[in-house]
């Protein structure tokens, strides 16, 4: 919430500077609300993802987030029953598109995706291929 207050103060300061600067005078009166709307439009254009029109069966995102964000491997969190030997089944090794579909246990995962993955080659495949 503090971030929003700071940004609001910055926008108000921009509004005041634009009012006082003769080079910024375009003959049109600009309100602080119009400046806020322009800032929001710019942020939405820059950071929003394109979505399909709401039709049945259309996925919400064209590109999964796992292909666009930065992800790093980490160890699977320990459980009380398995302790430091905690392992989970790799999601890519279990996928139906693999030639040798095997249930392989791994101690690594992607925390951002909450997905267990073998470090090589599954982690890279999962985060670079749309259909791994």
Write structural notes for this entry.
The protein is mainly alpha-helical. The chain folds into two domains: 2-47, no CATH class; 65-128, no CATH class. It is 37% helix and 9% strand. The chain has helices at 2-20, 32-47, 91-94, 119-128, and strands spanning 73-75, 88-89, 105-106, 108-110, 115-116. The strands form two sheets. Strands 1-4-5 form a three-stranded antiparallel sheet, with no helix packed on it. Strands 2-3 form a two-stranded antiparallel sheet. A hairpin with a 4-residue loop joins strand 4 (108-110) and strand 5 (115-116). Helix 1 packs across helix 2. The protein is elongated. The protein starts with a helix and ends with a helix. The mean pLDDT is 77.
A few lines on this structure:
The chain is mainly α and 132 residues long.
Summarize the biggest pleated sheet: 3 strands, antiparallel
> What is the chain-wise order of helices and strands?
HHEEHEEEH
- Poorly predicted spans: none
Beta-strand portion reads 5-15%
Structural class: mainly alpha
User: For the CA atoms, what is the radius of gyration?
Assistant: 24 Å
* Helical content band: 25-40%
- What is the 3D form? elongated
Protein name: PiggyBac transposable element-derived protein 4
Organism: Danio rerio
